[in-house]
Design a protein that fits this description.
The protein folds into five domains: about 90 residues, Uridine Diphospho-n-acetylenolpyruvylglucosamine Reductase, domain 2; about 120 residues, Uridine Diphospho-n-acetylenolpyruvylglucosamine Reductase, domain 3, CATH 3.30.465.10; about 110 residues, Alpha-Beta Plaits (2-Layer Sandwich), CATH 3.30.70; about 130 residues, 2-Layer Sandwich (Alpha-Beta Plaits), CATH 3.30.70.2740; about 190 residues, Uridine Diphospho-n-acetylenolpyruvylglucosamine Reductase, domain 3, CATH 3.30.465.10. The strands form seven sheets. Strands 12, 13, 14, 15, 16, 17, 18 and 19 form an eight-stranded antiparallel β-sheet that branches. The chain has a five-stranded antiparallel β-sheet with strand order 5-6-10-8-9. By secondary structure, the chain is of the alpha+beta class. The protein is about 30% helix and about 20% strand. The chain has 22 helices and 28 strands. The structure holds flavin-adenine dinucleotide. The site of flavin-adenine dinucleotide has 36 residues, from strand 3, helix 5 and strand 10.
């Protein structure tokens, strides 16, 4: 299958860029890069190591010109086969690019190369009194580049967001070898967010500007023991529902706990089935203590059998060691561990856990359950022995059934471990054909020859064959009659090639902006009542709903959305990106493309790394990529706590599309039917 001569042909050119020692084709190196922390295996044809980020673009350009597949690799700890070279080609080993180039505490930014190990960055920041929020359990070895590639998360993401929320700007080498710098603050569609979590399929990150935060002055850590998982989950839902935002809210079941304790004295009461670790932080000790008191009361009211606040740093570290050591502890029990990663809306966690346990028992498997309970993200760690082929089959089936159960409960197939090769098949269960086709168009726009980490994320033909019923298992949104007629109208216009000017409440898009003979599509009819999920702290609002009405409806329900006071419609807020911070609250979108196809992207979970983050791509898309019909947002409980930071009016007029904005426009709306003046020069 592999054409070794294609590497020999370009070897001198590769060596001229990175040096002869850094182009490796020897058996030891090939073997070493044939596996990662997932289950898939495949051999690369060569491994190229870099000593300077500037070497990456010329190497990729050379590979692209010669039609050779490649993929970026760092610590290889990803759990979805993301760094397995399915089509051979070249592994780009970036692990020596590990300089922290700048720490700017004034601007609260750190500029780093991709090979910087997460924990080393934390250590470097500490003397300045700062930290970087994403804290995957693998942080002692996993790197910033890999964290960006997977959009990694960790316990602290409950309060501080996942990797995507903590990256400000990226320098990226595109699959064709161009160097680009994209920031979420750029006007226009958010290309940077699309790159985060794209698993090396859309480009290679060579520098990252990361958000850094002052270390909190006060941290309080507590544990709560329960004799049932259900009771523990009820406490979690109450804590979040009461407007308390812990910096971490983690849970483990008795199997994980037993493995982590490994014979040491069990500090929890006999019969403990679940333990919560709850950590609060802040600058105001009084507030932290008050929240801790409230948490204790909630835990007690939900039948906690013990509640203990860590007396000092040593005790706190012990608690975290048990949580973070649970995976290695499970790994000691058997030769292999499959770490599954599914997400459900938080209130559905008890059902998800019950179903997970039933599935495990049906397949006679042992697993420790670990979960980022505050985020609804569960990780069953299933132990097995890969030499037992029957057991491997059972593990895979159980894993797939757990994912299907998450989808049916309104969740998703990955919160932080990515899709890689191992969950490609599950993309068929989560999405419809139209969404998958949409993702394929994004990939083709960035990588027309399909050379950047090929056959990852998106299902290939073999995945459909592997499963009898490949169609989506997810509930589809029920559209209002107004939304339905709008979709029909767009379909008709597409058929006749009629151009459309998408208008919300007209706050930003004035009539004199409507050009090119485009016919108005007025979204004001899409203003039905928001569908508020009080327990999950989410709301779905139609695009034409005025922001003030949306806010009023939330207030009636005792909830709020942390956005500044702005005029305009829900759809307009997203499409204009007038307040870029909206990206952090946006969980799902329903969008109609220029040809009248309805897409459902994202969902109701706070974590979701299934496929490209196309939800954020629509932030700043100005109606030119698709018509936003409805959006789902993360809410806060209680009265409005903090005014979100001041609004920087987006430079609507200053938007100059990047050539990648244009490529995407061409892929999504080749006839330039939607808001045609924005991409006037698109062919
Ligand atoms: C014990 C254990 C615990 C874990 N715990 C967590 C956890 O708590 N949270 C979590 O999110 N994950 C966790 N993981 C998964 C894994 O550690 C993360 O996915 C991590 O982000 C991968 O980093 P890495 O450096 O190993 O990247 P790699 O595995 O080398 O690469 C990951 C992906 O990113 C791509 N990539 C690499 N470099 C770049 C680049 N420069 N530009 C673009 N793409 C790139 C790769 O092609 C690949 O698709 C855990 C894994 C293990 C083994």
């Amino acid at each position: 299958m592999f054409k070794h001569e294609r590497i020999s042909a370009i070897r001198p050119a590769l060596e001229a860029i990175v040096g002869a020692d850094n182009v490796r084709t020897d058996e030891a190196e090939i073997l070493m890069y044939s596996y990662d922390a997932g289950m898939a295996r495949a051999r690369p044809e060569a491994v190229v190591a870099f000593t300077d980020p500037a070497q990456v673009a010329p190497v990729i350009k050379l590979l692209y010109k010669n039609g050779i597949p490649f993929l970026p690799r760092l610590a290889g700890t990803n759990l979805s086969g993301g760094t397995i070279p399915l089509k051979g080609g070249v592994i780009l080993n970036l692990s020596r690019l590990k300089k922290i180039r700048r720490i700017d505490t004034g601007a609260r930014v750190a500029l780093v190369e991709p090979g910087v190990v997460n924990m080393e960055l934390q250590r470097a920041l500490e003397p300045f009194g700062f930290f970087y929020a994403p804290d995957p359990a693998s942080q002692k070895v996993s790197t910033i580049g890999g964290n960006i590639g997977e959009n990694a998360g960790g316990p602290l993401c409950l309060k501080y967001g996942v990797t995507s929320d903590n990256v400000e700007k990226l320098e990226v080498v595109t699959p064709e070898g161009e160097v680009k710098t994209w920031s979420y603050a750029d006007p226009g569609p958010d290309l940077m967010s699309l790159l985060v979590g794209s698993e090396g399929t859309l480009g290679v990150v060579t520098h990252a500007w990361l958000k850094i935060l002052p270390l909190p002055r006060h941290i309080k850590t507590a544990s709560a023991a329960y004799s049932s998982l259900d009771a523990a989950m009820r406490a979690v839902t109450r804590i979040i529902g009461d407007g308390i935002v812990p910096r971490a809210l983690e849970a483990m079941d008795s199997v994980s706990l037993g493995a982590a304790l490994n014979g040491k004295t069990d500090p929890f009461p006999r019969g403990t089935e679940a333990v919560l670790i709850i950590e609060l932080d802040g600058g105001d000790l009084g507030k932290v203590k008050k929240d801790l008191d409230d948490v204790e009361k909630i835990c007690a009211a939900n039948a906690a059998t013990a509640f203990r606040v860590a007396a000092d740093e040593a005790e706190r570290e012990l608690l975290w060691a048990a949580r973070k050591g649970a995976y290695p502890a499970m790994a000691r029990l058997a030769p292999d561990v499959l770490v599954e990663d599914g997400v459900v809306p938080r209130p559905r966690l008890p059902e998800a856990l019950r179903e997970t346990r039933e599935i495990l028992s049906k397949y006679k498997l042992t697993a420790g359950l670990l979960f980022h309970a505050g985020d609804g993200n569960l990780h069953p760690n299933i132990i097995f022995d890969r030499r037992d082929i029957q057991e491997v089959k059972r593990v895979k089936k159980a894993g797939y059934e757990i994912l299907k159960s998450c989808i049916k409960l309104g969740g998703t197939i990955s919160g932080e471990h990515g899709i890689g090769v191992e969950k490609r098949v599950a993309m068929n269960w989560l999405y419809g054909r139209d969404e998958l086709d949409f993702f394929r168009r994004i990939k083709a726009a960035f990588d027309p020859l399909d050379l950047a980490n090929p056959d990852k994320i998106l299902p290939v033909a073999a995945d459909a064959r592997a499963e009898a019923a490949p169609e989506s298992l997810a509930d589809r949104a029920s559209l209002s009659p107004q939304a339905r007629s709008l979709v029909d109208e767009l379909r008709l216009r597409s058929r006749s090639g009629e151009r459309t000017a998408v208008t919300g409440l007209g706050t930003r898009l004035k009539a004199d902006r409507i050009m090119e003979g485009a016919k108005t599509l007025d979204l004001r009819s899409l203003a039905g009542r928001a569908a508020i999920d009080r327990e999950n702290l989410t709301a779905r609002a139609e695009a034409g709903l005025a922001l003030e009405d949306f806010r009023a409806q939330l207030k009636e329900a005792g909830l709020n959305i942390e956005i500044p006071d702005l005029k305009g419609s829900v759809g307009g807020l997203i499409a204009s990106k007038v307040w870029p911070g909206i990206r952090e609250l946006l969980l799902g979108l329903e969008v109609v493309t220029a040809d009248g196809t309805l897409l459902e992207l994202g969902g109701r979970t706070v974590k979701n790394v299934a496929g490209y983050d196309a939800v954020k791509l629509f932030c700043g898309s100005m109606g030119a990529y698709g018509v936003i019909i409805a959006a789902t947002f993360a809410l806060s409980a209680g009265a409005r706590r903090a005014q979100a930071s001041a609004v920087e009016p987006a430079a609507w007029d200053a938007f100059e599309p990047d050539d990648y904005h244009r490529r995407l426009k061409k892929a999504l709306d080749a006839r330039n039917l939607l808001n045609p003046w924005i991409y006037r020069t698109t062919p």
